[in-house]
Predict the 3D structure of the following.
Amino acid sequence: MSEVRFFDTAAPGGSGESVPWVRTRLRTAPGTAFWLALLVALTACLAAACPRAVDRYEDAGLRRAVEQARPDRTSIEVFAPQPSMMLPPRGREDVLRPGVLAHQYAKVRAQVPRALALDPGQSTYGVRTTMDIPVPDPWLPRPTGKPAEVTLIAQAGLGAHASLARGRLPRADGDVTANTPELEAAVTVDTAKSLHIKVGSVIHAPAAGRTLPIRVTGIVTPHDPQGAYWSTHPILRSPSLIREPAPSLDMHWLGALLIAPEAAPLLLATPGSPEPYWQLAPSEQTLRARDTPALRSALASLEAGPALQRVRLEIDGPVTELSEITGRTDVLTDLDEILIAYDRFRREVAPLVAVAASGTGTVAVVVLLMAGGLTADRRRSELALLRARGASLRGLTARLFAETAVVAVPAGALGLAAALVTVPEGRLPYAIAAAVAVTAVTCAALPLRAVAAHRAVRVHTGREDISSVRPSRRRTVVELTLLALAAGAVESLRRRGTSGASDDLVSLAPVLVGVIAALVLVRLYPLPLRVLARPAARLRGALAHLSLARAGRTSASAVLPLLALLTALTTAAFGGSVLAGVQEARDHAALLAVGADARVETATPLPSGLPERLRRSPGVSGLSAVSVTYDAKPEDGAVSVPLAGVNPADYAALSSRTGIGAFPADRLRKLRKGTAGGTTPALASTATARTYGTRPFPVLLPDGSSLTVRITGVLDRTSAVTGPDFLVVNREALSPETARPTTLLLTGKDLDGAALRRAAPEAASVHLRSEERERYVDSPLQTGAEGVYATAVAAGTGYALLALLLSLLRSAPERTALLARLRTMGLTRAAGRRLLILESLPQAILAALGGTLTGWATIRLLSPGIDLTAIALPSAEPSSAASELRTDTLSLAIPATAVLLLAVGMGIGQAWWSGRRGSVRELRAGDAR
């Protein structure tokens, strides 16, 4: 009667009786509560960490892109025209004084849109000459006899951004005007070294009707040479050797003289056309990828929008005829172009990441639902009895929800906290939403499954094993709906590719294929069991027949474990293939760039003994010496075509090992100087063969010799030469001077780059395939996306093992009781162990084989729409064949093998454990239950 009152929600105090229920359940099943809490905590941690990890690597990618672009492109330059000649002399000078510029600098910064955060430490203002000023001093270096030139810069904050190496900072005494007779300046250490400037040196610059002496009072060392203060205009810290435009061969030095801001009015006397400027440096540490649209909008407003109009109003004042004649303040920056390029790169990577995240999320949801379904199935008789004794459906649901929430909510909060500690950067709301979603699914899985199974009050139910229960019409409709969705997602992904895949359905394509395969296998699962059960019944031993009968009596709820297994294995296989495809793409691209595992080349012939010396280097397994001539001129000599002279046997072996333009060596060995007009067989690129055909034609070489070649074979590419045009001939056909090797192509494993560089001449360049490959990983977007896929592989494998483990644990008490009864009938321990292994193998084998086949089919179906270029080779062409998705055998085999090993291990472990407990104790425990 107490049981009835307990579930009577209409009874007074019914709501308060949920606490003893929950406490009682936790006390009677602490192990179940612990494993559920662990599952929820790990899943919530993974779900909460994913969006924050994406935010972190996207933000890091944006900052890396800005850092690599250098301050001369990322800084925002606001510059005003030279003070108008229509102003009085005093008025022109006042425009350039530091007090006025500082006041305008504050106004300019106030007009910058809030989305664009500035770095005040690297931002500055000042006055500079816009035209280089030639100085006649003969002691300054003159490479070709042309005088050096200087630019005069009065930039605020010199003392705070540099330390004195020698001398003192320049000063401006009194009220400096355009008529001040002398000027003081400082130079950087690099400028002083290149232009031979010392403290006390005097540089004479032309001025209005006179010569202006500029005395160098100090040499400074920049604190942060790569920062925006010094690198927005690199001439500020380092001089440049300027080459005159062709056909002139003249060169001259250009350096910067740093003057005091108070001396800026004196620049009006020089022919340098001085202009005031305000230099704004964006704060790189505050840049966030999610703010990119707002940043681009702010920059557009500042360059040609409302913000620019406000800046002009603050500096130039209202529009007048004078301002229209003399020009107005303008803003220049390349930061918007950097943001556009980054956005394009991120849009290419995001769909690939969405595929991995969607697959892992779906697997996690399926496993959580499976855990609730298995719990409801395990407690089916208990819940049916409670319903028969008067428990209302609403009260049962509420108490099951409370029972699960008491465990899941703290576990979800713990998982969220672990995610926040593990990934401290990123948006918090997304992480909280993900953790709440995991907790909600967990809390709802058991009550909903119980409601579905116990809507009607029943005590005794018929057999509901997978072999006897036929799918309902509702299930058929759901399966057909999922099939239609999967077909649409796959077709959309194949047509549009990941570059256009922005909707969730396309991102779910791989996991939907796994779901459909799981549903198909569940329908087909009873068929092989029925086929095998008949011959097994005729065997002398009972183990095979008994294990097949037991496997056929698996509960119909096994659809969820099988669904979880196949979706998890499909996700792991797909993610592993993506990672393998990325590695393969980089490896292949590096091979095409180098031409072999290592390349040693010079512009002049290599020493004669170098090939044999390098052939004996550690790790070298093959070497081909090539003489490359880039100025070979076929026919009339109007167009140059690179020509490679090779040893046919060595070069054919190299081409075969690398897979780049493989050909039979005999095609170049057929050298017949006495026949066919002395023609030489040659291999050519497709473009070269299209131009010259198969007729003999002469080729003029740089040393004055020539040879007549006939194209006998066409190659897409070759190792010795990169580019669309080339000719490959036998080196014996070349003159002795031209035949001397200029390039060595080496193959082998673990080549020692340092040893090769020591052995090579000083003028030679040494390129290693391994070093070239590392250059392709140049953005946190790539490494972050790879990390997401690595996590997806690990999570997929882990969830597959967890799904199998939960399924086996669900049926463990029943199998243990059966084993105990059979042992009382004479079953040996070895036979019991084999029985448990054979009983668990059908589902494990079905999941392993089905997961392997599904993963293979998924990759084959989706590979036309998956382009890995964005992750593997961001600078390569999207159409590169090396960036296509390919099946990775290990990614298919390892998770499937792990599932089989776990099934066998669980059978062995349970048989051993039940043997230790003893049959009598187990049977008594069963009677007590």
